[in-house]
């Protein structure tokens, strides 16, 4: 049974990959398509569910497709899984967040998805425009758990503040 607070929306499964250069600046994509049109975000994309693609396989594929940077699964650290309920009122998302352990040293060429730039963590969300949910949830998750693992759920229903709840942290907080 569907309640008014949880509309019947499609569920999408995707990855985001956080890439940094040797100076610790983050590679972001100025999105040329929705969602997040005209604002900066990490690279990523949807799993090819018809082929049974895993989140790691998707992260490797998306990194190469979007940046030309070839990585292997063992160079990626899965640091978060977040279930976003009613993102922008359009769909639910199950997101797998990865941090690449190997630095990327060049800015990739522009593509149909958008253009790239490197930014300090301090600039992201202050001088660099990012989605509100990224400012309130995604980047704090990165800051707090990038070297660990956390499972979260977020209520992103329009018209209300994003509420994020931790479901599990590994290793547990002492």
How would you briefly describe this protein structure?
The chain has two helices and nine strands. It has 174 residues and is α+β, with helices and mostly antiparallel strands.
Overview of this structure, please?
This protein is α+β, with helices and mostly antiparallel strands. It has one domain: Nucleoside Triphosphate Pyrophosphohydrolase, CATH 3.90.79. It is 16% helix and 38% strand. Strands 1, 2, 3, 4, 5, 6, 7, 8 and 9 form a nine-stranded mixed sheet that branches. The chain is globular. The chain starts with 9 loop residues before the first strand and ends with a strand. The relative contact order is 0.21.
Provide key terms for this protein:
174 residues, alpha+beta, 9-stranded mixed β-sheet, 9 strands, Nucleoside Triphosphate Pyrophosphohydrolase
Structural class: alpha+beta
SSE string: EEEEHEEEHEE
Cα distance, first to last residue? 39 Å
Low-confidence stretches: none
What is the CATH T-level topology? Nucleoside Triphosphate Pyrophosphohydrolase
Q: How big a fraction of the residues is strand?
A: 35-45%
CATH architecture descriptor text: Alpha-Beta Complex
Mean pLDDT: 91
| Number of DSSP-assigned strands | 9
| Rg of Cα set | 16 Å
Please give the structural blueprint.
Blueprint: E1 10-20, E2 26-31, E3 40-41, E4 43-46, H1 55-67, E5 76-87, E6 91-100, E7 114-119, H2 132-145, E8 149-155, E9 163-170
Parallel strand pairs: 1-6, 5-8
Antiparallel strand pairs: 1-2, 1-4, 2-3, 2-7, 5-6, 8-9
């Amino acid at each position: 049974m569907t309640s008014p607070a949880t509309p019947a929306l499609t569920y999408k499964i995707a990855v985001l990959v956080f890439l940094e250069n040797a100076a610790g600046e983050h590679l972001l994509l100025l999105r040329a398509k929705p969602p997040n049109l005209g604002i900066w975000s990490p690279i990523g994309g949807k799993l090819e569910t018809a082929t049974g693609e895993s989140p790691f396989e998707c992260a490797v594929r998306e990194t190469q497709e979007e940046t030309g940077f070839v990585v292997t699964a063992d160079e990626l650290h899965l640091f978060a899984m977040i279930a976003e309920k009613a993102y922008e009122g359009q769909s639910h998302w199950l997101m797998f967040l990865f941090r690449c352990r190997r630095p990327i040293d060049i800015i990739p060429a522009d593509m149909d998805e958008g253009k790239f730039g490197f930014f300090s963590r301090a600039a992201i969300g202050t001088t660099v425009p990012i989605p509100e949910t990224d400012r309130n949830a995604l980047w704090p998750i990165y800051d707090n758990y990038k070297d660990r693992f956390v499972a979260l759920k977020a209520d992103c229903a329009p018209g209300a503040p994003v509420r994020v709840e931790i479901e599990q942290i590994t290793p547990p907080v002492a």
